[in-house]
Design goal:
The complex is a heterodimer of chains A (about 450) and B (about 475). Chain A has about 450 residues and is of the alpha/beta class. Chain A is globular, with a radius of gyration of 21 Å. The relative contact order of chain A is 0.10. By secondary structure, chain B is α/β, with parallel strands linked by helices. Chain B has one domain. The chains are: A alpha/beta (about 450), B alpha/beta (about 475). At the A-B interface, β19 and β20 of A face β22, β23 and β24 of B. β19 of chain A pairs antiparallel with β23 of chain B, so a sheet runs across the interface.
Chain lengths: ~450, ~475
């Protein structure tokens, strides 16, 4: 099924949905089922995003979709062994762990804090019908990206995480998202995270593949920060280089809430991250960071959209790329300041280093501003390592490779230092160094034999 | 002092050049088809190849749709409701260097002296009204040095080889929708050729004036600067105050050869429409320069205060090794004006550099967007770009937007882009007030300082003019 057309894939996926609509809806909550039909119609009408359209200007989504994938409607029997969990654990970091295998939660192997609700989407909808109905698909429905429509139509598995009002989670919650199996597989995972009033939590999401098969992970996470909530969300993306990942993180921030979103992309053949933040309450603060270290033929596209709908909010974005080999990096950042969203403070920064002659970088930071009493800025740079700094170090007997490594680590450090879990930050730095040295940056010892391309 | 009042005073000033001259016009009927194009071509006694060029462009245009990607709200344009050729009738013979007194009066009123004795020293003008060039001054003095400066029609007659070689070489007719339209129906414009090693002793200038109602203006400028030569070129434009919109779709092509330098300045002051947004010119222009030779240099400076809708991206293709280009722009929008403008820098040769400085000022209910492209192709080793685009907001109903695109396919490139959007700081105003400077003067001072970097790049006479224009455009908008 190589080289299939975009229309072919669209028809195939629509037909797949129509054929199995009953099974897909079976046992799922009404809130999820009632939006499926609209979503699939939208997907059918618009098709997959085309390269060249404003949101996918430099990204060919068919790279992800243009292969034959299996699709599983029901939960697979496979469970994760404790070794995997151990392998993904961050040494010395005490966390709660939630294991998700091919989109389905493995409750048996998970440790869940007592004062937090973490369960399958269907269970969440049954236990908290009002909360679920109030938030499910509220953010996703308004998006124009048809990969999200596809997710809405197919969604069955995923995590419902609710941190009740005023709960302060004592340890970070680590969500280990593993993809396994020996056959190509498409996973449409759907998560809903609600951080209640005044709650505080730190979440670490690790995306891994446990096999060298070709996976497509189309992940949509809706996150609602209720007033005064504080949420740190650290994502580490590390799929194998044959796999593709589309991760949409859709966030609503209410009054006085604080968010840190930090995405580290190491491996993964095709990665598209959509981070969309809606400032819905005043005095909310969002810090959005991203670091990508593509090599080989990787294509990494970071898309961010910050919608300042109300006054007095602050957003800060920093995205960095170190591009090696024939990799392609894309950054599109969009800041919208709506009329009357006065006193908005929005900053956006994208810095890139191209190491190899064939690496390509496309950047597109954008501001759309309809209020006058604002401070908005953006900056973008593409360059190389500072030659005078290299020279300085070489004068002092530091080998060229080592000197370059130091400079690259320093470049990455600006993102790493924003992590508010010190041990995780150390682990990050280690993984980044491994990655830059060309080693596989899996958590723990590497068992994967990634193809050298 | 009430700040709101000052702002409204600043933005309320009237458009000075809105008068209509009572001149008889030789006008063709409305509408656009192949016959109209043949008619324009025959009126201008053009050679067969040029007619073919036009028809080819027209046929391509028919296959195209008007692009909608710009951040602009453009009412539908009825291309059959436009007059594509309108020439002011002259009762004298322009070939003898004479000029109709009525026309002369019009240009005198605009401050463009067509009398060489009275002229601004050191500036040669080509005055274009509607579809034809009315008069070119200092032609002979320039010809002594081998410089060709004349109307486009004249160039087609007298220098067909040069025109044929370069016409459409920088902006091909298939480039975009309006380039195709212009290539099909362009009527006149300026042509300029600077021979090898010549430094043009005076500023060359084209002044475009729309006078006739219901016409569109489609002029074409072609500048060729041969090896080691230099020219500074200025373009100005105005139009009468009318309630209906008029279309202006021009093309500017510049070819810069080895070690040559071109400085292209624009003071664009088309009628911007009234306070309710009625009328005004649609200014959809394709301007592009090609730095063809080694170390070629092209500099764009522009002050944009007019037009109901401005949609243009003067750009440079840096083909020659070591070539460089600069773009300096101040774009002011007020009332209901809209602008989507910026620059494109395409780096192809090695060690090329470019610089973009764009200053947007929005007032009233206007929308002002910067859209730019910096592209470094795979072989453009050592490319360097610096872009800066700042937006200043005067009033809470206007919008300022920034859409830069950076595409880097080479790892030796160093590209920087930065943009800021803010309003005039209260602390800045307070600082001035403390020192006895009224709020209005303070705003004038700050806006001036804000635009200074760009205004400084204009030729001196026009910098003064542009500064005044800036003040007038913003009159009544401070607060």
């Amino acid at each position: 099924m190589e080289n299939v057309s975009s229309v072919g894939i669209k028809d195939k996926l629509t037909a797949l949905y129509r054929q199995y609509a009953a099974q897909i809806s079976d046992g799922m909550p009404e809130a999820m089922n009632r939006v499926r039909e609209t979503a699939i119609s939208q997907f059918d009408a618009l098709g997959l995003p085309r390269k060249g359209c404003e949101r996918y200007r430099f990204t060919e989504i068919m790279t992800a979709f243009g292969h034959a994938y299996g699709y599983s409607i029901s939960k697979l029997a496979a469970t994760t062994d404790s070794q995997t969990v151990f392998r993904c654990a961050v040494p010395d970091l005490d966390t709660y762990t939630i294991i998700i295998n091919n989109g389905w939660i493995d409750l048996k192997n998970s440790t869940i804090p007592a004062n937090v609700v973490a369960t399958e989407m269907a269970d969440g909808a049954n236990k908290y019908p009002e909360l679920f109905a109030a938030h499910y698909n509220r953010l996703a429905a308004q998006k124009y990206d048809t990969t999200i429509s596809l997710n809405i139509a197919f969604a069955r598995s995923g995590l419902f995480l609710y941190i009740p009002d005023n709960v302060v989670v004592d340890k970070p919650i680590q969500i280990v998202n593993v993809l396994s199996g020996n056959n190509p597989l498409m996973v449409n995972q759907r998560n809903l995270i609600v951080a209640g009033r005044g709650s505080q939590a730190k979440i670490v999401i690790c995306d891994h593949t446990l096999a060298n098969s070709q996976f497509l992970l189309n992940n949509v996470t809706e996150t609602v920060l209720q007033p005064n909530a504080q949420l740190d969300c650290y994502c580490i993306q590390n799929l194998n280089d044959r796999s593709s990942q589309i991760a949409s993180l859709l966030i609503e921030q209410n009054t006085d809430s604080q968010l840190i979103a930090n995405t580290l992309t190491l491996h993964g053949g095709f990665v598209r991250n959509n981070v969309e933040v809606l400032m819905a309450g005043q005095h909310a603060e969002a810090s959005i960071y991203g670091l990508s270290l593509p090599a080989g033929h990787q294509h990494i596209d970071n898309f961010t959209y910050v919608d300042h709908a109300v006054p007095n909010c602050t957003s800060y974005e920093l995205y960095k790329n170190v591009l090696n080999d024939e990799s392609v990096g894309v950054f599109s950042g969009y800041v919208l300041v709506r009329p009357d969203a006065q006193k908005t403070n929005a900053q956006q920064s994208n810095k890139n280093i191209c190491i190899s002659p064939s690496a390509r970088m496309y950047t597109k930071p954008q501001l759309e501003i309809y209020a006058d009493d604002v401070k908005c800025s953006h900056g973008a740079t593409v360059g190389q390592l500072d030659e005078s700094a290299l020279f300085y170090m070489r004068q002092r007997c530091i080998g060229e490779d080592e000197a370059k490594m130091m400079l690259m680590s320093a470049f990455a450090h600006e993102v790493v230092r924003t992590i508010r879990i010190p041990i995780l930050a150390e682990r990050y730095a280690e993984m980044i160094e491994n990655r830059l040295r060309g080693r596989h940056a899996a958590c723990g010892d590497c068992f994967m034999k990634c193809e050298k391309r | 002092m009430d700040n709101t009042n000052i702002i409204s005073e600043v933005t309320d000033s009237e458009y000075k050049y809105g008068f209509v001259s009572d001149i008889e016009h030789d006008t063709i009927g409305k509408g656009l088809n192949e016959d109209v194009i043949r008619l324009i071509s025959s009126k201008k006694e053009e050679p067969e190849w040029l007619l073919e060029f036009r028809l080819k462009a027209y046929r391509h245009w028919l296959t195209q749709k008007m692009p909608t990607w710009a951040h602009l709200d453009i009412p539908e344009i009825d291309y059959q409701d436009i007059i594509y050729y309108s020439a002011p009738k002259q009762n004298v013979k322009p070939e003898n260097g004479e000029i109709d007194p009525e026309l002369k009066k019009t240009f005198d009123k605009l401050g463009i002296p067509l009398d060489e004795q009275k002229a601004l020293s050191g500036v040669a003008f080509d005055a274009v009204m509607d579809s034809v060039s009315v008069k070119t001054t200092y032609k002979d003095a320039l010809a002594e040095r081998g410089i060709i400066f004349c109307s486009f029609s004249e160039a087609v007659r007298n220098h067909p080889d040069l025109v044929r070689q370069y016409l459409g070489s920088v902006v091909p007719p298939t480039d975009n929708y309006f380039a195709a339209l212009n290539s099909a129906v362009f009527s006149d414009g300026s042509f300029c050729y600077i021979p090898k090693g010549v430094r043009c002793p005076m500023e060359l200038s084209t002044y475009f004036r729309i006078n006739a109602a219901k016409t569109g203006q489609f002029e074409r400028t072609l500048i060729i600067c041969d090896d080691d030569s230099y020219v500074s070129y200025l373009e100005g434009c105005t139009a009468p105050r009318r309630d209906e919109n008029q279309l202006h779709a021009a093309i500017v092509e510049i070819v810069v050869m080895n070690n040559a330098e071109v400085k292209y300045s624009t003071v664009q002051n088309w009628y911007p429409g009234d306070k309710e947004g009625r009328g005004g010119i649609y200014n959809f222009v394709t301007k592009r320069g090609l730095c063809k030779g080694v170390n070629a240099r092209l500099s764009w400076s522009q002050v944009e205060t007019g037009s109901a809708i401005t949609w243009k991206y003067p750009g440079t293709v840096l083909l020659g090794d070591g070539s460089s280009s600069e773009f300096y722009s101040v774009a002011v929008t007020n009332n209901h004006q809209q602008a989507d403008t910026g620059s494109k820098m395409i780096h192809i040769g090695r060690n090329t550099s470019s610089r973009i400085v764009s200053k947007g000022i929005s007032a009233g209910q206007s929308q002002n967007s910067y859209r730019g492209l910096v592209k470094v192709s795979a072989n453009a080793d050592g490319a360097r770009n610096y872009s800066q685009c700042d937006s200043l907001l005067l009033g809470d109903k206007c919008g300022a937007h920034t859409f830069p695109y950076v595409e880097c396919l080479n790892n030796t490139a160093v590209l920087e882009h930065e943009a800021t959007t803010s309003k005039i700081g209260e602390d800045q105003i307070f600082y001035c007030n403390q020192r006895g400077i009224s709020t209005e003067d303070a705003v004038g001072l700050i806006v001036n300082g804000y635009a200074k970097e760009v205004l400084n790049t204009l030729p001196m006479e026009f910098a003064v003019e542009a500064q005044k224009l800036l003040q007038v455009s913003l009159e009544g908008s401070v607060g």
